Structure of Kinase-like protein:
Amino acid sequence: MFVSENQAEGNLELTQTATADSTDILLGEKNSIIKEGDLREPFASYSTPPDTRESGDLARNGVKQDSRDIYKPKPYRFGNYILSPTTWKGRAKVKPAWEKDSGNQCAIKFYWRSMNNEPMNYLQNIYREVSILRGLRHPNIVQLLEMVETERHIGIVTQYCSGERLEDVFRRHRYLKDPTARPIFGQLIGGISYLHKKGIVHFNITPTNVLIGYDERVLICGFGSANTFDPSSENHDVLNKESTLFEISIPYTAPEVVLANKFNSMADIWSCGVVLYKLLAGSIPFEEDLSLPSTHAWTQSELYHRFMVNTHLTFPEYVTPHARDLLRRMLVPDPMKRATFLNEIMTHSWISGPAHLVCG
């Protein structure tokens, strides 16, 4: 679907001046610019730009206006979708939107068609993300609705999640007890296990890419680093490593990715292990304040991962024995010795048998 952009007709005109997380608006009321009350407004009024005359002009013409409407921001169109006005920058940002005819709420992840200093495979990586999402149907994975292309932007339209990021949960709670953490983690590994069966590695499992709805359903998003592999192969190495733009999220990135440039499905298991550790312990594993001399040949990421490879995994006293055993199996620096989803994790005593686990 290709749509031309025309600011004079009220269509999208975005400027690059502010930053936002890549999951900004899949999340619900508190993170949205358009609040819940705006959903009750008739969408027919958004088919053209709202009246932008000054309040004095309106008064002189006998138009009664609420003082709050004087500063009401102008909505924007992107194809057949209504966006709240915003300014942003970066490779991709996500904003809330509504389908103009039906009023159904969704989320649109925006990419600029051309970005300064981006590698040659920038667009190829975007189309791979869309191709991967198009083949996914799982209750714990965000669903692709469509892709909209314009002269300057590519928009990936997905379902909307009214809730919050897992990162927001961490900000409110020091840690979670097993009965609370178990359904969250069970849904997470159910979704990732489904991906691996389909021959897909996520590669960026972090608390910002795990959404929790008000119905307590977990949604995995953030597929910009995802890639494919052959599920029947022995090592599960990705097929297009050279053409993929990977995002390194310390400390959720597996050590072999940073230290050995090795990309396979076992990296997702490490990342899920770090998420589980933080759920139960309230901190990241191998947490250390490492200062890196400016003359050192290693990057901060390399130094941290070398530290974790050579450091014994420890736990706060409140982490239960069954949880410790599972984490010791997942957070193994050697990917060949790391636990697998089907054989060890999903059948482990800490998590086996919960009704919330959906394997796909």
Remarks:
- The CA atoms of residues 4 and 150 lie 5 Å apart.
- The chain has ten helices and eleven strands.
- Residues 178-197 form the longest helix (20 residues).
